[in-house]
Amino acid sequence: MNYLLRGIGVVAAVGAVSVLAFSLPSGDARGDGGGHALPKLTHKNWQQECASCHIAYAPAFLPKASWRRLMGGLDQHFGENASLDPATQADILRFLEANAADSGNSRMGGRVMQGVNLNEAPLRITETRWFVRKHDEVSRATWSRKSIGSAANCAACHRQAEQGVFDEDTVRIPK
Ligand code: HEC
Ligand code: HEC
To answer: Does the pTM exceed 0.90?
Structure first.
C-alpha cells in the first residue's frame, strides 16, 4: 500500500516535471519572451504600407473581424485616406487575419481576446477592454501630453514597440 502510493507520487512528480519541461521551451520557441513580446513578423506590404503614419500595429492586438472591418474602410481611416490597390489590400488582410488575436499564434492574442466582444469588431486597439485594463495606471492628462499625442502612439512610451517588445522594463512615460 505504502509502496504503491509512493509509486503514484513518483509518477505524478515525473508527470509534472515533464509538463513543465514541455511548456517552457514551447513558449520560447514562439519568440514571445514569455508573452510580453510579440512574435517577430515580416511582411513586405504590411511593413511598407502600414508603418508610414504610425508603427505597424501587430496583428495580435485585434481579432480578424476588426482587421476585416478596418481594411474594408481604408479610404476613411481615422480621418486619413489610406487606400491601397485591391491586390495589396487583400494581401495585407490575409497576413493580418493569419496572425490576428484569434488566430492562436501568440499569447498576446489570447490575452487580447479575453476582453473583446466579437460582435463589436473594435477598430481601435486602444479601445479594447484588454488595452484599457493594461493602461489603467495612465491618467487622462498623461495621454494628452504633447509628447504623446494619443494612446495610439505606442512608441512614445514603449521604447521598443517597433520591435514588438512591450515589457515593463522598456516602458518610459515621457514628460
Ligand atoms: C495616411 C496615414 C496612415 C496610413 C498609411 C495608415 N494609417 Fe492607421 N492610422 C492613421 C491615423 C491618423 C490613426 C489614428 C491615430 C490616433 O488616434 O492617434 C490610425 C490608427 C490606426 C489604428 C488604430 C490605433 C488605435 O487607436 O488603437 C489601426 C489598428 C491602424 N491605424 C491600422 C493601420 C493599418 C493596418 C494600415 C495599413 C493598411 C494603416 N493603419 C495605415 C493613419 C494611417
Ligand atoms: C502613455 C504611455 C503609453 C502609451 C502611449 C502606450 N502604453 Fe502600453 N503601457 C504603458 C504602461 C505604463 C504600461 C504598464 C507597464 C507595466 O506595468 O507592465 C503598459 C503596458 C502595456 C502592455 C502590457 C505588457 C505586459 O507585460 O503585459 C502592452 C502589451 C502594451 N502596453 C501595449 C501598448 C500598445 C500596443 C500601445 C499603442 C497602441 C500602447 N501600449 C501605448 C504605457 C503606455
So the answer is: no
Q: Using a 6 Å cutoff on CB, does residue 57 contact ligand 1? A: yes
Answer yes or no: do 15 and 56 share one domain. no
Does one domain contain both 25 and 47?
no
> Which range marks the domain in which residue 139 is found?
42-170
12/17 Cα distance (integer angstroms) = 9
> For the chain, which residues score pLDDT lower than 70?
1-36
Nearest bound ligand to the CA of residue 48:
1
How many domains are there within the chain? 2
Same domain, 85 and 8: no
**Residue 161 CA: which ligand is closest?**
2
Same domain for 111 and 55? yes
DSSP string of 90-144, one letter each residue: HHHHHHHHHTSGGGTS-HHHHHHHTT--TTT--S-GGGSHHHHHHTTTS-HHHHT
- Within 10 angstroms of residue 52's Cβ, the number of other Cβ atoms is 9
